[in-house]
């Protein structure tokens, strides 16, 4: 019986030691990885974790080569019909083939009317998608700040675990609990870190969507002119 319970005790200690070692290694690795990532960022934006450079706003010139868009154009209200169209076009779930057809159906009338509709439509799309992009980027920075706070907590917990282990009369239960908690925290941290590359792509996808919509509007205008 003593051998039985002694073996169980030994097994628990080996598992606990293994958990502590794993937690310590992961904590050090994640902390080092996050620190390295932070050093590579643009110092103007310390909370920006993405490899893509942070550009606060989309330049209209980079996504539109049609009729000139003035600042006042982006401030003009749109009617309910146009607002519904903008909502459908801005949604990435709407295939570009469908978006192009919706745009072509909307740009009708005289050349002057079509030019004005094109400007108004693109200006509304710009306001919508640029606003969405800003919201996403703000969310990414909030995410980054939470990750930094978690990394700091992991480092603190790792140091605490090391201090407990260094004590000759360490409380085994406290040590095991801290090691398990640390392993769980590092797992969450790593899962979130792995998702960073995905969320960092979203602002790029939004900007590409706006560019593609702008091109579709210009193509519809050119098609109308060539048919004459």
Could you give a quick summary of the protein structure above?
With 228 residues, the protein is mostly helical. Helix content is 76%, strand content 0%.
Oligomer: single chain
Give the helix proportion (percent range).
over 70%
Low-confidence stretches: 1-6, 8-12, 32-40
Radius of gyration: 28 Å
Number of E strands? 0
Q: Give the SSE order as H and E letters.
A: HHHHHHH
Structural class: mainly alpha
Q: Report the mean per-residue pLDDT as an integer.
A: 81
The tally of structural domains comes to 1
Number of helices: 7
Shape: elongated
Distance linking N and C termini: 98 Å
Strand content: under 5%
- Tell me the major beta sheet: none
Structure description:
It is built from seven helices and no strands. It is an all-alpha fold and 228 residues long. It has one domain. It is elongated, with a radius of gyration of 28 Å. It starts with a helix and ends with a helix.
Q: How is the topology of this model organized?
A:
Blueprint: H1 2-39, H2 60-63, H3 80-90, H4 96-106, H5 111-166, H6 172-194, H7 196-226
Helix pairs in contact: 1-5, 1-6, 3-5, 4-7, 5-6, 5-7
């Amino acid at each position: 019986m003593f051998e039985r319970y002694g073996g169980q005790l030994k097994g628990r200690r080996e598992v606990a030691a293994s958990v502590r070692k794993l937690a310590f290694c992961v904590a050090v690795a994640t902390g080092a990885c996050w620190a390295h990532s932070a050093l590579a960022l643009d110092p103007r934006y310390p909370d920006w974790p993405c490899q893509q450079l942070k550009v606060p706003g989309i330049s209209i010139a980079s996504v539109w080569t049609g009729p000139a868009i003035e600042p006042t154009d982006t401030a003009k209200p749109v009617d309910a019909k146009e607002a519904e169209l903008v909502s459908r076009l801005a949604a990435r779930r709407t295939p570009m083939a469908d978006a192009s057809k919706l745009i072509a159906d909307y740009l009708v009338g005289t050349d002057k009317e079509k030019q004005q509709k094109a400007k108004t439509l693109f200006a509304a799309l710009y306001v919508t998608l640029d606003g969405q992009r800003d919201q996403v980027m703000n969310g990414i920075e909030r995410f980054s700040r939470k990750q930094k706070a978690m990394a700091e907590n992991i480092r603190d917990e790792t140091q605490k675990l090391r201090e407990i282990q260094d004590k000759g009369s360490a409380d085994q239960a406290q040590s095991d609990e801290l090691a398990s908690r640390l392993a769980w925290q590092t797992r969450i941290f790593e899962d979130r870190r792995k998702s960073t590359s995905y969320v960092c792509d979203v602002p790029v996808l939004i900007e590409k969507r706006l560019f593609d919509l702008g091109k579709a509007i210009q193509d519809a205008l050119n098609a109308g002119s060539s048919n004459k």
